[in-house]
Amino acid sequence: MSREPGLTRAAVAHELGLSSSSATEVTAKLRELQLLAEIPAPSRGRGRPTTLLQAHPAGPLALVLDLRQSNWRSAVVALDGTFLNQDDRRHRTRRAAVVVGHLQGAVLEAQELYGDRLQAVGLAVPGTLRDKYMLQASAPEWFEMDLESITAGTEVPLLVGNDATLSGVAEARGGAAVGAGTALHLIIEAGIGGTLLIDGVPIQGASGAGGEFGHTPFGDRSRVCSCGARGCWNLEIDGRALARHLQDPEPDDPHAYTHEILRRTDGTAVRAVEQVVTAIAAGIAGLVNAHDPDVVTLGGLAVPLRAAAEDAFQDAYLAGLMSFRRTAPPPVLTAAHQTDGPLRGAAALALDHLTAESTIANWATTH
Questions:
Q1: Are 186 and 284 spatial neighbours (Cβ–Cβ below 8 Å)?
Q2: For residue 8, how many other CB atoms are within 10 A of its CB?
Q3: Interacting residues of 335 by C-beta distance below 8 A, sequence separation 6+
Q4: pLDDT tier at 298 (50, 70, 90 boundaries)?
């Protein structure tokens, strides 16, 4: 239901190869378990009327959270992917203990409101993850942040993913990468992250820390990144690089600074943007050569930066590709979900949990 809202019972029966009587029996059981509700489908003339399937109004829910450098967003998601009670709050401080406390408060508030209907918490974070610790982050205050405490004392499972990885999941499930066997998703905020997806599944590596494309050595080896490596691509493609080209101090908020520079029309700013866009496109070409995707999707600041210097982007992208790829290069598309990508990816993660056999069996025993 979340991937194709508004499905009729007849369409689901056809998709699953069920007879009409079997579909009726299954939907009756799902209604009894408060997992599914049916409403009459709009009349289309003669013929037996059918029904639309949607999440039961008393069914299981998940809270999804998207932690960002300057703010955090939340929503409650139903089984059909519907978002309820969306909220957006700015950080008063980036101190880890305070930020975690606010996220804990959102979980407790949702549990108080929905009771045992709250079956999972999905969380998107802007950093490298291992065992629910954020080992590297866009905000230095969040290095080695313990995320598991966000659901402490609630017995609600916490499902955590990197924001760029989850944005890629959202594009593969219902965005610009739908149907792609191999998709490369990249997002620029403070630095660049992303994921490689095979049939919609992100390739996350041996420890779950894969997709840190911003820490590939596509940059100047004389520069040391906050991650400890030299020459990281991250240092060439966001507001920090723009400030360096313009001989400005390094901005405290690279995201806001980038938008400020994009509003300028003077030649110095235009040339700085072109340099950054060239570095973005050249790096994308390198990743295309390495991973051979069907499609590349871009989110975050990559979209307005590319739009500001499209010719520079195309020139650098084609020049960086192996010659056999240039006749039919993988398209580089704007992501469909943009700012909603991490939240929708966290929702996809949570819905996978809600619809898992063990979760449904547990729900059935108590409902």
A1: yes
A2: 16
A3: 167, 171, 175, 176, 185, 187, 297, 298, 299, 303, 341
A4: very high
Q: What is the mean pLDDT of residues 141-165?
A: 89
- Mean per-residue pLDDT for 55-60? 88
pLDDT at 146: 85
Are 181 and 352 contacting, i.e. CB atoms less than 8 angstroms apart?
no
Residue-level pLDDT at 137: 72
Nearest to 138 by CA among 222, 205, 215: 215
CA of residue 42 relative to chain centroid, distance: 34
Would you say residue 13 has pLDDT above 70? no
The percentage of the chain sitting over the pLDDT mark of 90, rounded to a whole number, equals: 61
Taking the CA atoms of the chain, what radius of gyration do you get in angstroms?
A: 23
Query: What distance lies between CA 212 and its chain's CA centroid?
Result: 14
Q: How confident is the model at residue 49 (pLDDT cuts 50, 70, 90)?
A: low
- Burial 127-148, CB ≥16 within 10 A → b, else e: bbbeebebbbbbbeebeebebe
- Which domains, from first to last, does the chain contain? 9-55 (no CATH), 61-163+342-366 (3.30.420.40), 176-335 (3.30.420.40)
Name the helix (H) or strand (E) containing 262. helix 254-262
Strands (E), 163-285: 182-189, 191-198, 201-202
DSSP state of 3: S
Beta strands 158-162 and 118-125 are parallel
pLDDT digit string, tens, across residues 261-291: 999 999 999 999 999 999 999 999 999 999 9
Task: Give the dihedral sign, CA 184/2/115/339.
Answer: positive
Please compute the mean of the pLDDT values over residues 128-152 and round it to a whole number.
Answer: 79
Cα–Cα distance, 288 to 218 (Å, whole number): 14
User: Could you identify the residue written with the tokens 């916490």?
Assistant: 158
Rounded (10°) angle between helices 9-16 and 20-32: 110
| Residue 150, pLDDT above cutoff 90 | yes
User: Cα–Cα distances in Å, from 112 out to 109, 117, 120, 335?
Assistant: 5, 10, 14, 35
CB 346 within 8 A of CB 122: yes
